[in-house]
Every structure is written in C-alpha cells, then in structure tokens.
Design a protein that fits this description.
By secondary structure, the protein is an all-alpha fold. 80% of the residues lie in helices and 0% in strands.
C-alpha cells in the first residue's frame, strides 16, 4: 500500500531534494519578509531624523527644504520616505534648471 501511494503522488520517481530545499527557502523568505520590512521602516525613519538635524543650507545643498522632511514624516508606514525625498530633490533640480535656462534665453 505504501508503494502504491508513492507511485501515485510522485509518478513513480523519488522526490527531488533540490525542490524541497527551494520550497524551504521560499518559506523562510516569507517568514523573514515582515521583519525586514519593519527594519527598513525604522532605518528610513532614522535617516529622516538625521536629515532633520542638518541646517537649512546643508539641506539646500542636497536639493531639499525643511518642509520636504515634514511632508516625508507624514507618509504612511507603507510609503518610502527616501524615495519621496529623492523625487522632491530631483523635481526641484529640474525646475531650477528650467528656470535658469529660461532666463538665459530671455537675456540673449
């Protein structure tokens, strides 16, 4: 009876050992994922705290303003504050470049 069950469930061949290891690794990944997300959340909040300690001139050097940090602090836990701040800095640089290039064209 045991032999018939083995043939029925595996098609007559022995189960693959590597498949079992991949399944186990997948389960381990599922177990670790929530903890990694929580650690990432606290790491990003710590970064936000360090940025808040910078003076306004230093923030301006990296393309941010104080209210950008305040906006990032109000994001929900599922949103990435670092991605948000990077987007703000890029947007600000692009707007400044457009303004500067527009001014040069008018002066010519």
């Amino acid at each position: 009876m045991t032999n018939a069950t083995f043939e029925c469930t595996t098609g007559g061949r022995a189960p693959s050992r590597s498949a079992s290891l991949y399944e186990l690794a997948g389960l381990a990944g599922l177990a670790v994922r929530p903890f990694a997300a929580i650690a990432g959340f606290y790491r990003r909040r710590a970064m936000l705290s360090r940025l808040a300690e910078l003076d306004d001139r230093m923030l301006c050097d990296i393309g941010l303003q104080r209210f950008d940090l305040q906006d990032a602090a109000t994001l929900s836990s599922g949103e990435d504050a670092t991605r948000f701040l990077r987007g703000r800095a890029i947007e600000r640089r692009q707007n400044e470049a457009r303004y500067i290039s527009g001014t040069r064209h008018k002066a010519s």
